[in-house]
């Protein structure tokens, strides 16, 4: 947590950070970061999960046009399987922050954790905000950027890896997706350590006593 209240920082020095795709079975986890100016025109901006896809698509270019700075960062399935999804999410967040074309004095991160130093790669004040994606506009903007970028990417990946329905469920563990994994087996963008993708051991049968 930051020792200085967020209200003490000017808006153009505060970046919101959020992620999309953490619970998916396929595709990368994507982090978004955004610094909003003191005044902006983004009607309906809120948590991306509460917005219809058409509304997110409408906000996406407006956020990028009006933001002081923004960026996205990714962690792909191979890395997710190697370091686990939490650490991969931190790495994606660090990449997004470092990719911004302006520096932030404070990072406000959705959830209940800040980004570890090894993943962030620079010194900057941080604070976590539970429910920040619905209460902090900069975090809401970051969530829209991450979600929209990721959805567009998954639609493109669906053409490379057909048969799984990625363009519909975006890699989440829907019934359609789970059945496709059983039928086709996992592909290169599946997270092989996730339940529903990894092979489960066959239960051992108890021998008869007679």
Automatic annotation (TrEMBL):
It is an enzyme of class 3 (hydrolase). Its main location: cytoplasm. A divalent metal cation binds at residues 18-19, 110. One of its GO terms (biological process) is DNA replication, removal of RNA primer. The keyword Mitochondrion does not apply. Residues 12-206 form the RNase H type-2 domain. PROSITE patterns: RNASE_H_2. GO terms for molecular function: manganese ion binding; RNA binding; RNA-DNA hybrid ribonuclease activity. Its EC number is 3.1.26.4. The keyword Acetylation does not apply. It catalyses: Endonucleolytic cleavage to 5'-phosphomonoester. Manganese or magnesium. Binds 1 divalent metal ion per monomer in the absence of substrate. May bind a second metal ion after substrate binding. Keywords: Cytoplasm, Endonuclease, Hydrolase, Manganese, Metal-binding, Nuclease. GO terms for cellular component: cytoplasm; ribonuclease H2 complex. Belongs to the RNase HII family. Endonuclease that specifically degrades the RNA of RNA-DNA hybrids. PANTHER family: RIBONUCLEASE H2 SUBUNIT A, RIBONUCLEASE HII. This is Ribonuclease HII. It comes from Pseudodesulfovibrio alkaliphilus. The gene is rnhB.
């Amino acid at each position: 947590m930051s020792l200085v209240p967020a209200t003490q920082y000017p808006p153009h020095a505060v970046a919101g950070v959020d992620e999309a795709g953490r619970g998916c079975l396929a595709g990368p986890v994507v982090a978004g970061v955004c610094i909003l100016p003191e005044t902006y025109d983004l009607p309906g901006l809120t948590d991306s999960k509460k917005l219809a896809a058409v509304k997110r698509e409408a906000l996406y270019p407006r956020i990028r046009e009006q933001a002081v700075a923004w960026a996205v960062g990714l962690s792909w399935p191979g890395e997710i399987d190697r370091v686990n999804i939490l650490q991969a999410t931190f790495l994606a967040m660090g990449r997004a922050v470092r990719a911004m074309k302006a520096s932030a004095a404070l990072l406000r991160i959705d959830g209940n954790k800040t980004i570890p130093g090894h993943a962030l790669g620079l010194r900057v004040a941080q604070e976590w905000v539970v429910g920040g994606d619905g209460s902090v506009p900069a975090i809401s903007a970051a969530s829209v950027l991450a979600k929209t970028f990721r959805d567009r990417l998954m639609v493109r990946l669906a053409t490379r890896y057909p048969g799984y329905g990625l363009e519909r469920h975006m890699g989440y563990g829907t019934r359609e997706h789970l059945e496709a994994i059983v039928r086709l087996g996992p592909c290169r963008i599946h997270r092989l350590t996730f339940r529903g993708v990894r092979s489960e051991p066959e239960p051992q049968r108890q021998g008869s006593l007679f």
